[in-house]
Amino acid sequence: MKLIELCCQNCGASLQPEDISLQLFVARCPHCAAVFAITDPARGASSARERLSVRERVPMPPRVEVLDLGNSLEIRRSWFTPVLFFLVFFCIFWNGFMIVWHVMAISMGAWFMSVFGLLHTAVGIGLAYGTFAGFVNRTVIRVGQGMLEVRHGPLPWLGNKTLPAHEVQQLYCQEHVHRNKNGTSVTYSVELIRNSGRETLVKGLSECDQALFIEQELERFLKIEDQPVRGELER
Fold it and tell me: Is residue 58 a contact partner of residue 173, using CB atoms and an 8 Å limit?
């Protein structure tokens, strides 16, 4: 069997076996840190396609809108979920209790009790802010003019980012299970592989269809061939 040397598609450096992941069909150059998809050189790109199971198209889920103008793509996702109504009552109870706590502590001159409650007060304020953001905020993912942007608003929120669209090598989704004393919750994220490594594009999605739909539409617009990634969420 003929042996073929694999080289980096970016800088041309030779790759060693430890630089190649046959499970993920990707390679990482130890010299320039470029990450790129690999295929079977004897059979070409069709070899990678044959390893993929047929993935059905994901229909547009509720609270998601798409604006495709041909030269740009915009995906808008509302943060609203029915569970926010429960959180409103919980925030009122929690913060109301903390107000009473501080008033009683200060009126009795027990300042140390008021200081002790500051941590719980901060938790209540943060929860109230997040609940209000859930009613008014939305995530906008925009691709255009060679850039991929993610913006959350109108209330300020972490996770805004901008990166060159041509650096995106692959997109995939992951499921995140959170276990605590109050039970188990599940969220979903859209991840990407770029030249500098892996990173999260959007996280905290409450429905798997939203994550899969975002992955599907971005791959379609960016003309990225869907490749399997270990640990990804299956359709």
Answer: no
Structure tokens at 80: 């609203």
User: CATH assignment of 52-79+137-222?
Assistant: 2.30.29
| C-alpha angle 186-189-191 in degrees, rounded to nearest 5 | 150
pTM of the model: 0.72
Cβ burial 107-142 (10 Å sphere, 16+ → b, else e): eeeeeeebeebeeebeebeeebebbebbeebbbbbb
CB neighbours of residue 64 within 10 Å = 18
The two structure tokens encoding residue 200: 């999260």
**What pLDDT digit, counting tens, does each position of 141-150 carry?**
999 999 999 9
Give 175's strand partners: 188
Average pLDDT value for residue range 77-81:
94
Domain residue ranges of the chain, discontinuous segments joined by +: 1-51, 52-79+137-222, 83-133
- What architecture does CATH give domain 1-51? Roll (2.30)
Q: What share of the chain is helix, strand, coil (3-state, %, to 5)?
A: 30, 30, 35
